[in-house]
Specification:
single chain, binds NADP nicotinamide-adenine-dinucleotide phosphate, alpha/beta, N-(1-d-carboxylethyl)-l-norvaline Dehydrogenase, domain 2, Rossmann fold, six-stranded parallel sheet
C-alpha cells in the first residue's frame, strides 16, 4: 500500500455514513451529537432529509459523500450491497481522496472483505471491517460492541469515531478478522435465541406464569441478553424488527460458508438457520428474530404470552 496523503496526525473531523436503516440512522445521530462534521447518504431521500434537520449534510451519492470526508462508514445489508456502494458506478472509490478510511460496519463475508480491502489499498484507501453488536438499542444508546479488522494504524486513527458510537471497541487483527469475530457473535445470538424460545414454549405448555418465570430466570445463571430483551418481546407478542429475520438468515449463511471453508460443523447455528427458513416461507422475513418462538409454538401447540415487563 502507498503512503496515504492524509495527515494521520490530525484528528478526523469529516465523517460520512451510507445506509440510514435501523442501525445507520441512530449511528449517524450519535456522530452528529459527538461534534463530527457528518455527511449522510441513503437512497430514500426522506431519511437524508430527517438527518439534515438534525445537523448532518446530505450527499447525492456515495462518490460525492466520499469526496467530502476523511472517513466513510457503510451500514448496508449484505456483501453485494457493500460492493456496489464501494466499487459500483458513483461509488465511494470514484470520489475518494487517497488516505480515506472506509469502515464497513455492516455484517458481510470475511472473504469479500479481504478482496475489497485489497482493491481499496490499490487506490491508496484504507479499509477497516468494523461490524457491530448490541442491536438497535445499542446503536441508539451509543453502546455498541465494535470488532475491527484491518491495518492497526487506520484502526487507531478511526478510534474516536468508533468511540462516538460504541463502548467496547476491540482490534481483532488483519482484514476480515472483525467480520469473523462478528460471525462468532452471530452463532451465540442464534443459539441463545433458540434456547429462549424453547424454554418459554416448554414453560407455557406446562402452565407456568411466564412473567414470574422470566423474573426468576433473568436473576440467575440462565440469564442472557436474548432472554432479557427478546424473551420479553415474545411475551408481549411484539414481533416488530430490531433485527430482521432476513438479516439473521444472511448472517447464518455467512457462518455456514465460513464454517465449510474452516471445516467446522456448526450444528446449533445450522438448526436455527433451518427453523428461520419456515418464517421466511411464511413471508415473515421482515419480522424481528424473536418470531422464532412462533415456529416452536406451532410445533408444540401452545402460545407464549405475558406482560413481558421488568419487575
Ligand atoms: P436495514 O434497516 O435494512 O438498513 C440498511 C439500509 O441500507 C437500508 O435502510 C437501505 O436504505 C440501505 N441499503 C440497502 N441496500 C442498499 C444498497 N444496495 N445500496 C445502498 N444502500 C442500501 O438494516 P440494519 O438492521 O440497519 O442492518 C444494517 C447492517 O448492520 C446489516 O449488515 C446487519 O446485518 C447489521 N447489523 C444489524 C443489527 C440490528 O440489530 N439491526 C445489529 C448488528 C448488525 P436506503 O434504501 O434508504 O438506501
Amino acid at each position: 500500500m502507498g503512503e496515504p496523503t492524509e495527515d494521520f496526525a490530525s484528528p478526523i473531523k469529516q465523517v460520512g455514513l451510507i445506509g440510514l436503516g435501523i442501525m445507520g440512522l441512530p449511528m449517524a445521530r450519535n456522530l452528529v451529537k459527538a461534534g463530527f462534521d457528518v455527511t449522510v447518504y441513503s437512497r430514500t431521500q426522506a431519511k437524508v432529509a430527517a438527518l439534515e434537520k438534525e445537523g448532518a449534510r446530505g450527499a447525492s451519492g456515495p462518490a460525492e459523500l466520499a469526496s467530502r470526508c476523511q472517513m466513510v462508514i457503510t451500514m448496508v445489508p449484505d456483501s453485494s450491497d457493500v460492493e456496489s456502494v464501494a466499487e459500483g458506478k458513483g461509488g465511494i472509490f470514484e470520489g475518494a481522496k487517497p488516505g480515506l478510511i472506509i469502515a464497513d460496519m455492516s455484517t458481510i463475508s470475511p472473504l469479500t472483505t479481504r478482496r475489497l480491502s485489497a482493491a481499496a489499498a490499490e487506490r491508496r484507501f484504507l479499509w477497516l471491517d468494523a461490524p457491530v453488536s448490541g442491536g438497535q438499542a445499542g446503536a441508539i444508546a451509543g453502546t455498541m460492541t465494535i470488532m475491527v479488522g484491518g491495518e492497526r494504524a487506520a484502526f487507531e486513527r478511526a478510534q474516536p469515531v468508533f468511540a462516538a458510537m460504541g463502548q467496547r471497541i476491540t482490534y481483532m487483527g488483519a482484514s476480515g478478522q472483525g467480520q469473523t469475530a462478528k460471525l462468532c457473535n452471530q452463532i451465540l445470538v442464534a443459539v441463545n435465541l433458540l434456547a429462549v424460545s424453547e424454554a418459554l414454549v416448554f414453560g407455557a405448555k406446562a402452565g407456568l406464569d411466564l412473567d414470574s418465570l422470566l423474573d426468576a430466570l433473568t436473576a440467575g445463571a440462565a440469564n442472557s441478553w436474548a432472554l432479557d430483551n427478546l424473551g420479553r418481546k415474545m411475551l408481549k407478542r411484539d414481533f416488530a424488527p430490531a433485527f430482521m429475520v432476513r438479516l439473521q438468515q444472511k448472517d447464518l449463511r455467512l457462518v455456514g460458508e465460513a464454517a465449510r471453508e474452516l471445516q467446522v460443523p456448526v450444528i446449533g447455528a445450522g438448526l436455527v438457520h433451518q427453523l428461520l427458513t419456515s418464517l421466511e416461507a411464511a413471508g415473515r422475513g421482515d419480522d424481528g428474530t424473536q418470531a422464532l418462538v412462533n415456529v416452536l409454538e406451532s410445533l408444540a401447540g401452545v402460545e407464549v404470552t405475558g406482560k413481558g415487563s421488568k419487575q
